[in-house]
């Protein structure tokens, strides 16, 4: 009787959320490798052209001049709000300009404009201007996050469907659980019978793949909920921050890494801050700067030390007036809750362990996309069978 209740709930919750789960899972598959694919598809945007590699022997232009070049190329009224730059000498720097309408319902109205400008930092040459609003991977990301329905409608729908999918995974495990733990039932629960008829094979595909993907699918769902519900993130960050941190019995001297003098070579403290940071981390993967207004106390620069790992970082805060470091945050020194939060994106997209965890995330997302399809086929088969019985009985 209890199992029948779970079956009823599993069926109808699956039918209600199936299309959303399918879209979110398929776009998740694509997005796992989006950074790698972009470098292959858009080399003219992300790499300095071969003929200009001689410029890598000279100093990069000041950031303030490059920002001016980016804004000039965009036209009047469009300001750069963020810069993503790469210390590697063969990479362009990316200047973002964005204006949004958070109250808008649909994706196309949410972004009033969204552009990326790709500039050779040695020459100041604009290599490409991208309309990011219509760029393929940006559309994939927005489909994944809000089904192109905007924040007000789309994000609650995706968040709700994710919660429903977690319930489906748990109820699916209950339904999968064998009545008898003998050799025959275990074989059917853990293996696919390739000789079975297609209806039975589809049923086994739904059950077996669902079981094997259960744990990893739950991880993807929970890390996704962190993006959808900031309150949920705060709760688990606060919870894990209560855990005792590991300390040595022998106290170690604390050295403040920001007790240094940042050379003020120019009158622009942001330019000086970036020159200093590039000098400190020449082998870093990338750096990000959000261009704060003059009324803000700090310039902040996030340094991503390792490729594909947003959780391996150093974050510098420079006083806007003096240009000196006022605060420095290292990812490895965060308390447990904040450390886990910093790893959330890496876990969600599978980059936490390199190529193998990316492949795992891709495979699990693909299986999650298949579950609504195989589940729908099971429902249709049973519905057709029931109709035939009714016809035969009349």
Overview features:
15% strand; single chain; eight-stranded antiparallel beta sheet; elongated; 14 helices; 8 strands; 394 residues; alpha+beta
Structure characterization notes:
With 394 residues, the protein is α+β, with helices and mostly antiparallel strands. It has one domain (1-245, 335-394). The chain is 54% helix and 15% strand. It has 14 helices and eight strands. The chain has helices at 2-32, 34-41, 43-46, 63-74, 107-110, 136-146, 150-176, 183-190, 198-228, 230-241, 269-280, 336-342, 344-349, 355-393, and strands at residues 82-85, 93-100, 111-119, 126-131, 286-290, 298-306, 309-319, 325-330. Strands 4-3-2-1-5-6-7-8 form an eight-stranded antiparallel β-sheet. The two termini are 29 Å apart. Mean pLDDT is 89; it is low at 246-255.
Layout of strands and helices, then pairs:
Elements: H1 2-32, H2 34-41, H3 43-46, H4 63-74, E1 82-85, E2 93-100, H5 107-110, E3 111-119, E4 126-131, H6 136-146, H7 150-176, H8 183-190, H9 198-228, H10 230-241, H11 269-280, E5 286-290, E6 298-306, E7 309-319, E8 325-330, H12 336-342, H13 344-349, H14 355-393
Antiparallel strand pairs: 1-2, 1-5, 2-3, 3-4, 5-6, 6-7, 7-8
Helix pairs in contact: 1-6, 1-7, 1-14, 6-7, 7-9, 9-10, 9-14, 10-12
Would you summarize the structure shown here?
The protein has 394 residues and is α+β, with helices and mostly antiparallel strands. It contains 14 helices and eight strands.
Helix content: 40-55%
Cα gyration radius (Å): 26 Å
Low-confidence stretches: 246-255
Supply the number of structural domains. Answer: 1
How many strands appear in the DSSP assignment? 8
Question: What is the overall shape?
Answer: elongated
Mean pLDDT: 89
Beta-strand portion reads 5-15%
Structural class of the helix and strand makeup? Answer: alpha+beta
Secondary structure tally, helices: 14
Helix and strand sequence: HHHHEEHEEHHHHHHEEEEHHH
Termini separation = 29 Å
Sheet with the most strands: spatial strand order:
4-3-2-1-5-6-7-8
């Amino acid at each position: 009787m209890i199992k029948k209740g779970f079956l009823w709930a599993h069926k109808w919750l699956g039918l209600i959320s199936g299309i959303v789960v399918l879209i979110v899972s398929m776009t998740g598959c694509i997005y796992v490798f989006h950074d790698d694919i972009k470098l292959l598809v858009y080399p003219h945007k992300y790499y300095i052209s071969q003929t200009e590699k001689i410029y890598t022997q000279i100093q990069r232009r000041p950031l303030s001049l490059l920002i001016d070049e980016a804004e000039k190329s965009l036209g009047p009224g469009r300001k750069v709000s963020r810069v993503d730059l790469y210390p590697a000498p063969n990479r362009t720097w990316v200047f973002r300009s964005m204006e949004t309408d958070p109250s808008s319902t649909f994706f196309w109205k949410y972004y009033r404009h969204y552009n990326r400008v790709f500039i050779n930092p040695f020459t100041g040459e604009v290599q490409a201007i991208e309309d990011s609003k219509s760029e393929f991977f940006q559309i994939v990301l927005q489909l994944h996050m809000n089904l192109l329905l905007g924040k007000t409608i789309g994000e609650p729908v995706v968040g709700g469907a994710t919660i429903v999918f977690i319930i489906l995974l748990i109820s699916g495990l209950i339904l999968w659980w064998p009545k008898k733990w003998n050799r025959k039932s275990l074989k059917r629960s853990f293996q696919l019978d390739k000789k079975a008829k297609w209806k039975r094979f589809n049923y086994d595909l739904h059950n077996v793949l669902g079981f094997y993907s259960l744990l990893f699918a739950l991880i993807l769902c929970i890390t996704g909920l962190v993006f959808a519900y900031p309150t949920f993130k705060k709760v688990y960050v606060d919870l894990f921050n209560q855990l005792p941190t590991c300390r040595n019995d022998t106290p170690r001297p604390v050295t403040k890494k920001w007790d240094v003098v940042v050379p003020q070579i120019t009158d622009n403290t942001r330019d000086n801050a970036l020159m200093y940071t590039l000098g400190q981390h020449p082998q870093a993967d990338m750096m990000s700067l959000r261009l704060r207004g003059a009324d803000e106390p700090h310039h902040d620069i996030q340094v991503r030390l390792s490729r594909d790992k947003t959780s391996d970082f150093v974050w510098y805060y420079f006083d806007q007036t003096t240009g000196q470091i006022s605060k420095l945050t290292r990812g490895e020194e965060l308390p447990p809750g904040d450390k886990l939060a910093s790893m959330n994106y890496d876990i969600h997209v599978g980059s936490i362990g390199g190529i193998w965890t990316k492949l795992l995330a891709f495979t699990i997302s693909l299986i999650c996309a298949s579950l609504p399809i195989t589940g729908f086929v099971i429902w249709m088969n049973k519905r057709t069978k029931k109709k035939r019985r009714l016809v035969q009985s009349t």
